[in-house]
Amino acid sequence: xxxxxxxxxxxxxxGKVKSTGxxxxxxxxxxxxEAGIKNENKDYKPMVLAVGxxxxxxxxHEEIKNLEVGDKATVEIPAEDAFGKxxxxxxxxxxxxxxxxxxxxxxxxxxxxxxxxxxIVRTIDGGRVRVxxxxxxxxxxxxxxxxxxxxxxxxxxxxxxxxxxxxGNPNLDxxxxxxxxxxxxxxxxxxxxxxxEQRTVQEVTLSKFRVSREIYENMExxxxxxxxxxxxxxxxxxxxxxxxEVPEKLADDE
Amino acid sequence: xxxxxxxxxxxxxxGKVKSTGxxxxxxxxxxxxEAGIKNENKDYKPMVLAVGxxxxxxxxHEEIKNLEVGDKATVEIPAEDAFGKxxxxxxxxxxxxxxxxxxxxxxxxxxxxxxxxxxIVRTIDGGRVRVxxxxxxxxxxxxxxxxxxxxxxxxxxxxxxxxxxxxGNPNLDxxxxxxxxxxxxxxxxxxxxxxxEQRTVQEVTLSKFRVSREIYENMExxxxxxxxxxxxxxxxxxxxxxxxEVPEKLADDE
Lengths: 254, 254
Hints:
2 copies of one chain form a homodimer.
Chain A: E1 8-17, E2 23-26, H1 29-35, E3 47-50, H2 58-65, E4 72-77, E5 91-95, H3 96-101, E6 111-114, E7 117-125, E8 128-132, E9 142-152, H4 155-166, E10 178-182, E11 185-189, H5 201-218, E12 224-232
Parallel strand pairs in A: 11-12
Antiparallel strand pairs in A: 1-2, 1-3, 1-9, 4-9, 5-8, 6-7, 7-8, 10-11
Helix pairs in contact in A: 4-5
């Protein structure tokens, strides 16, 4: 049965630079290992994808719709649809004395970071250092090898998959995340650990927005997504704990 | 009618150091102004308080229970029940050279901060600087002048008051915060702006916990509090916006 526009699938993929065959991303642990890009913190397994996602590169979208569960395929993506063309304005000449000030001795190929943007030293010419702030895959045609593993039927499982891809907290225990579909509303009660992360609220709101957009764009029946933090009254204890509490001032309103 | 254990009240207060009469906190704008502690960002108005709150100093609790709406009273709080006794181990001798390293020239009375803890320079003796990290009100008996303004009957208004005191985001628009009491569950759908603050999730979780504790400890019928972030599918637009979207790579899982 071919993949449908409205399906959620699990797929494996390997992304390569077309000209060199260099692997830059993969869901297969052994491929990552072989390519020397294995991340010990990453859980290598098939990724959940909404086939109709507006975030998907159109060519990938078209290709996947022609496949069936179990199929493999290779899709070529030109640079402009992948990581973008190279932007000459992102190559900057920086005076050598700026590096000296910070006690850095630049060399060709040295990775550096300017206000969080990664760059790489391309050339050193007398007093000037040419630094390239383009994405390292910018300007490169890439290809993805795809393998459709299965389709997902269960709504809660679809949402767990989207949380895994878009929520951005690898410590989240999705088994402890309760998902309730209540008519047009998807209610997500996250694992309690989600409340203790160090990202700012604004960063997490962006993640929640991305998960929500994938849900209401790709799950026809859902119009609203709620992320719920729950705080429950603890069961009363035997002993009277009141007397052990240290009173605060009138009201700590900071 | 006297104030009851289970009441929520609005009260005005002024906190003073007993020995000097120095005002350190107040809900009256003109008192703050006169004392030179007026904060332009603070909204001076009566504060909401759960009379039965376990966070309240017991002596304040007892005193408030003897009052009625409209009453005024002054309550003395000994240092150990207010900001604590002075702790000699919080007075530290720091070599002058540590200050010099950071280009700081200390003077007696200078406020400093070490890893976020505020302190004050007490003495400078040759190469040693004595810095006091005790709270500036530690060791001081204080007194609160209280005025009971009214009691609050409406559950949503009680919760809005607790959010104002304990949530810790002064930019929150409480008029835009929806509060639904659903049996034993209080549902709080915060103003959308709450999603854009720069505190970490962990800090805000602590604030949510404090609000929740005040709710389920002091509102008998509530056993569970939910903080809900909602994301709704936007109404479809006339034009087809799909073609204007810039596709991302296969899946941006960062």
